[in-house]
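(Structure overview)
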Amino acid sequence: MELTILMPCLNEAQTLAVCIAKAQRFLQRAGIDGEVLIADNGSDDGSQALARSHGARVVDIATRGYGAALIGGIAAARGRFVIMGDADDSYDFSRLDEFVEKLGSGAHLVMGNRFRGGIADGAMPPLHRYLGNPVLSGIGHLFFPSAIRDFHCGLRGFERDAIMSLGLRAPGMEFASEMVVQATVHGLKVVEVPTTLSPDGRNRPPHLRSWRDGWRHLRLLLLLSPRWLFLYPGLMLVLSGVIGLICLVPQQRHFGNVVLGIHTLLFAGVSTVLGVQAASFAVFAKVFAIQSGLLPGDPRIAWLTRQATLERALIGGLILAAAGLCGAVHAFIQWGTTGFGPLGPDTTMRVVIPSATAILVGMQIALSGFFLAVLQLGHRPST
């Protein structure tokens, strides 16, 4: 079979019949050997019987959620290609020619773009049109550079085997973002075509919950990008912290009426420690994501894990911690010269703060070396 037109369904009896009829007319007009498949997610309004009576095939998906329904539907599809879309009559299933053309030309994923094709009045809430979709699509494009400008269009076509190979697993609305991200990072050919969006034909609220589902999309984008979640913020914290330590250890600094003293020095030390921790989390998350199949292999991470051996991490971390300990001993000796009485904090803290920072960072590096080694215990190198 060449094509499966797949629709996730949860109580869509009002619009399901017209969507099926449009999809069937397209298959007949285009002369395509295909099927209309309804992935039902537990409807209790008779959607299943209605779909079967109109000639569609129905597969019941027990796990609730937009992504879960589509994952089950894709697995059950019989077509080489799949075009998926919502069963609320907001997309026109009778006009899928460009999707089929792009798929036949070798594209693995063909995304609709509603902003290029046209959004009818009342079809998309202003919050989604002017904030949610542009912001989330912009973040997705920044984290995972691609030609896609509408990450969340519900009408899209793909080569079934290519998408199945990605191991998609998001159960909710964030499945839409996961498909685009995984197709991009795995090097699949992804293209866009203009798509029109019409007001849906239901008289009830949509299943989409703006803030909850928007957060789930953003959360997924962050979790699949350790660079943006951990590495870049961590490097910025380390850079600002180290610069602060270098500038403020010798003496306080004056910038007009602003005086930066030991309190700023303390926060510079905190920034350095947090930055090192965040950067190490970036490595841990990337290694785990690669090993668990969430992300493809990365030659930079492979090189880093070969260089950052446990022994090197221990040596480097312990040397840095020892340097900090020497500073602490020096501060203790200074304290002893006063008979262990009161000390001037401005002088003493310029030794104590960088010493404590070095001890913390050194131990963090050593412990990170152990944790990275634990992550690699279960990894079987390729031969």
DSSP finds 14 helices and nine strands in the chain. The longest helix spans residues 345-377.
